[in-house]
Specification:
Mean pLDDT: 86
Oligomer: single chain
Distance between the termini: 45 Å
Largest sheet: 5 strands, parallel
Helix content: 25-40%
Order of helices and strands: EHEHEHEHEHEEEEHHHEE
Shape: elongated
Radius of gyration: 18 Å
Number of helices: 8
Strand content: 15-25%
Strand order of the largest sheet: 2-1-3-4-5
Structural class: alpha/beta
Length: about 230
């Protein structure tokens, strides 16, 4: 069955270009020209991915993202933004967007990100080689790959799909340092890396807020300055 992409964008020329290229790639395209209509279409149709402009009539892209995540939607969201301000991009990621792309964008890059995010939503993280049991016990942290859950001291943690995938990957090789580019390829599923590494930093910060005793002094998700991140199960 073909995949559906919801485009929430108020500039008709951009919608038309996206519709043409996505349709040519085999996607079914839904269109919304304001945030209010976008929320309704997303909830009614549960598309496979959303391309979301930040500057929208009626309801902003930030509020669209916040509303969908609060409603329990895990639909991958890629923000479309003409803004260069760092805070806008980080805020969108903090609200639950999966990635962003800045206008004007390369259609090839956008299509690659669409494909990667849809593929990620269909995949469960692979079990580490040599470890066949359904659970990984890493000190106080237990990752149950069969149930796709993570617990700390026996208490389940409320993680998003991305956060689960990230800790599952890091915990599968404790102590090994992964550069952000590698995490984008392995967890975000960007072949050849076509993402922004700041998305990794935001995801790590959100994960630490849920996993660490003190997110400001992490003991599970460790930063190796200039190198990347690693998991410590101590």
């Amino acid at each position: 069955m073909g995949k559906t992409v919801l485009v929430i964008e108020d500039e008709k020329n951009i919608v038309d270009i996206l519709n043409f290229n996505l349709t040519r790639e085999g996607y079914t395209v839904l269109e919304a020209y304001d945030g209010e209509a976008g929320i309704q279409l997303a909830l009614d149709n549960n598309p496979d991915l959303i391309l979301l402009d930040l500057m929208l009539p009626k309801v902003s892209g930030f509020e669209v993202c916040r509303t969908l995540r609060q409603a329990g939607s895990a639909i991958p969201i890629i923000m479309l933004t003409a803004r260069e301000e760092e805070t806008d991009k980080v805020l969108g990621l903090e609200l639950g967007a999966d990635d962003y792309i800045t206008k004007p964008f390369s259609m090839r890059e956008l299509l690659a990100r669409v494909k990667a995010n849809i593929r990620r939503g269909e995949m469960a993280p692979p079990a580490p080689s040599g470890e066949r049991e359904s659970q990984m016990v890493r000190g106080r942290i237990t990752v149950d790959r069969e149930r796709m859950t993570v617990s700390k001291d026996g208490v389940p943690l409320d993680l998003s799909q991305r956060e689960y995938e990230l800790i599952c990957f890091l915990a599968s090789q404790p102590g090994k340092v992964f550069p952000r580019e590698v995490l984008m390829e392995r967890v975000w599923n960007y072949d050849g890396f076509v993402g922004d590494v700041r998305a990794v930093d935001v995801a790590i910060r959100r994960l630490r807020e849920k996993v660490e005793d003190d997110p400001a002094a992490p003991t599970f998700i460790i930063t190796r300055r200039g190198l990347g991140y690693c998991f410590s199960g101590q």
